Amino acid sequence: MMTFSLWKQLKKKLKRKRRPLWSMCAATAVLMAVIILLATAEHTMAMHSANGRSTSHLEPAHDKSVLQKLEQTEQTLLVKLHRVFVCGEEEQMLGELSPKQVINMLTQYPDWTAILNQDDRSVLLEQHINDLSDYCKSNAYFGVDRQGNFSLFDGLPVKDKVMRTFFQIDIQYMESNLPQERVDQLAKGIRVNDIDEYNSVLSTFSDFAKERNVEGREGTERY
Fold first, then answer.
1. How many whole angstroms separate alpha carbon 205 and alpha carbon 165?
2. Which distant-in-sequence residues (6+ apart) come within 8 Å of 96 by Cβ?
3. CB burial class (10 A; 0-12, 13-18, 19+) of residue 142?
4. Mean pLDDT, the chain, as a whole number?
């Protein structure tokens, strides 16, 4: 595992000037554009599919049991909506609703899941959203932590508030294949304002994941 000395080493390396590989950078940009288009199309198809389902086809299976209990309940329920984003979470109290109102919500949004508490007096609705929360749009940065891991930070990486760790970066391989300006940006922190930027940055630096690069070099040696 990389230690703090590796991070200091990276800082020193950032001062060295390298000749940008513009052709590889251009190819990477084209590949990222294709990946984003495919991801967007897949998400759109999934949403159309979800909107066309009825309550009798709610997934996962436990939603069916919740619906059955709701149909048998007469008292009002305290309802909370939990939004789970690609980055971040939000909660919103919807107040006291009748069981029929909750069922209508699940009918309107069949991709939501519902959890009925054991006391049968409150319901937690959960919605998964392919986007960043408002907080992440204002505060999330991609960078490298002290162990050399590509991570998402709450604020600039220098504050060391890691929200999520993805993989370990092969620093030497990255420096030899990216323009120095891009490497410097990662060291300082790359701000992400929306899901497109999030996916684009993640796609770019996933090419420099250490395990993937080791496997790639082993495959080359076999041939």
1. 13
2. 76, 77, 78, 79
3. buried
4. 75
- The string of pLDDT tens digits covering residues 68-92 is 788 887 789 999 999 999 999 999 9
Specify the residue for token string 């149909």: 71
Gap between the Cα atoms of 12 and 116, Å rounded: 55
What is the spatial distance between Cα 173 and Cα 206, in angstroms, rounded to a whole number? 12
pTM over 0.70: no
Angle between helices 99-108 and 62-72 (to 10 degrees): 150
**Distances, alpha carbon 92 to alpha carbons 63, 143, 207, in Å:** 20, 31, 38
The C-alpha atoms of residue 198 and residue 191 are separated, in whole angstroms, by: 9
Cα–Cα distance for residue pair 118/120, rounded to 1 Å:
5
Pairwise CA distance, residues 104 & 78, whole Å: 15
Q: Tokens at residue 72, please?
A: 């048998």
Rounded to whole angstroms, what are the CA distances from 41 to 24, 34, 189?
A: 26, 11, 29
Name the pairing type of β-strands 122-132 and 77-87.
parallel
Pairing mode of beta strands 77-87, 89-97: antiparallel
